[in-house]
Amino acid sequence: MARRKTSVQKLLGLETFTKYGIKTDQFEYAFFQVEPVNISVLSQEHVAAKVQHLMQLLSTVPDLELIAQDDCECFDANKTYIRRQLEQEQNPAVRRLLEQDAAFLDEIQLELSSARQFLFAVRFRKEKEEQVFSQLGRVSKSIADYGFMAHRLTKPELKRMIALYFGTSISGECIPDVEGADYLQKEEKDAV
Predict the structure, then answer these.
(1) How many Å apart are CA 36 and CA 84, to the nearest integer?
(2) What confidence tens digit (pLDDT) does each residue in 67-117 have?
(3) What is the rounded average pLDDT of the residues 163-184?
(4) What is the DSSP string of 44-101?
(5) Is the pLDDT of residue 56 over 90?
(6) Number of helices (H), then strands (E), in the chain
C-alpha cells in the first residue's frame, strides 16, 4: 500500500494568502492588529470603559474574534538543549559559557514574556470580493468608533503571526510563500 504524502499546509487547512488575509479550506480570514494601550496608567473608570467598549464591539460585529498571542519567540527548546549540555560537559570553561548562555536566554525571555500581540480576526464564508472589501471597511470603522487603534495585517505581518503561532521564527515575514520555490528558481536559472 502506497502512502500518500500530505503537506503541513494541507493538514492545517491553509490554502493561500489572499488580497485581504488568509484562505483556509473553510473560510477566509482578515486580521487587524490592535495597538496596545498601557492600562496600568489608566484609572479604574477608564479601564472599565475600555472593557465595556470591547464588549460592545464584539456584540456589534458578531463575526469578529479576538486573538491574543505572544509577540516573541519561545526559547524553551534552546534552554533545554543548554541544560542537557551542562549536564554532560566536563570542561569548566565551556560550562561557564553554557551557564552564561542559559542566563542570557532567561534574561531575554523575561524581557519578552510580557510582549503580547492582540488581533481581531474577521471570518468570511463565501462572500464576493466587493462584499469582503465593504465588510472590512465597516469592521475597520467599528473598531475605530469603539476607541481601538488597529490596522489590517499585511502579507509579511501575516507570515510573522503564523510563524510566531507555530513557534518557528520571529522573522516569519521572510518565509517564502511556497516552500522550496527559491530552489526551483535557482534550478531554472542554472538550466539557462
Answers:
(1) 38
(2) 877 665 556 677 788 888 889 989 999 889 888 888 887 777 666 555 667
(3) 63
(4) HHHHHHHHHHHHHHHHHSTTEEEEEEESS---HHHHHHHHHHHHH---HHHHHHHHHH
(5) yes
(6) 7, 6
Compute the distance between CA of residue 118 and CA of residue 96 in angstroms, rounded to an integer: 39
Report the amino acid identity of residue 22. Answer: I
- Which residues make beta-bridge pairs with 23? 16, 28
Which cell is 7 given? 503537506
The grid coordinates listed for 25 are: 479550506
**Distance set, CA 124 to CA 16, 35, 47, 128 (Å):** 14, 23, 31, 9
Q: How far is CA 180 from the centre of its chain?
A: 22
Q: Label the pairing between strands 116-124 and 14-17.
A: unpaired
Measuring CA to CA, which residue among 55, 76, 74 is closest to residue 66?
55
Q: Give 66's Cβ-side CA count (13 Å radius).
A: 14
Instruction: State the average pLDDT over residues 169-189.
Output: 62
pLDDT digits (tens, 9 = 90+) for 138-156: 999 999 999 999 999 988 8
| Residue 165 CB partners (closer than 8 Å, separation 6+) | 69
